């Protein structure tokens, strides 16, 4: 199968039990039917329950905190970032 963006041959890899087609040129990611649902279900299972409580109050506090404290340069890896990294397969 070819990439719909640049017609490059798509590469296939398995990440966390989900087959993902990706383009090595444009780094586009293409999912077959049902694969996005699997990814979202897995991400939801790994999200701590406490992260879903008190979002409205936390949102205001976090906005003020971000304004006063810029985010660090290096981001912590999470399930989705690890799954969607295709540099050295």
Describe the structure.
- With 89 residues, this protein is α+β, with helices and mostly antiparallel strands.
- The protein has a three-stranded antiparallel β-sheet with strand order 1-2-3.
- 35% of the residues lie in helices and 13% in strands.
- It has helices at 35-46, 55-68, 79-83, and strands spanning 11-15, 18-22, 29-30.
- The longest helix is centred in the last third of the chain and has 14 residues, at 55-68.
- It has one domain (11-69, 79-83).
- It starts with 10 loop residues before the first strand and ends in a 6-residue tail after the last helix.
Structural class: alpha+beta
Helix count equals 3
Outline the biggest β-sheet.
Answer: 3 strands, antiparallel
What's the β-strand tally? 3
Distance between the termini: 18 Å
Unreliable stretches, pLDDT < 50, 5 or more residues? none
Share of helical residues: 25-40%
Number of domains: 1
- Secondary-structure element order, as H and E? EEEHHH
Query: Mean pLDDT, as a whole number?
Result: 77
Q: Which percent range describes the beta-strand content?
A: 5-15%
**What general outline do the C-alpha atoms trace?**
elongated
The Cα radius of gyration reads: 17 Å
């Amino acid at each position: 199968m070819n990439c719909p963006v640049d017609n490059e041959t798509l590469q296939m890899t398995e990440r966390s039990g989900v087959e993902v087609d990706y383009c090595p040129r444009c780094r586009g990611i293409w999912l077959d039917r049902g694969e996005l649902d699997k990814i979202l279900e897995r991400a939801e299972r790994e999200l701590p329950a406490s992260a879903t409580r008190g979002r409205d109050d936390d949102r205001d506090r976090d906005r003020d905190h971000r304004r006063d404290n810029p985010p660090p340069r290096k981001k912590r890896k999470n399930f989705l970032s690890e799954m969607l990294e295709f540099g050295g397969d």
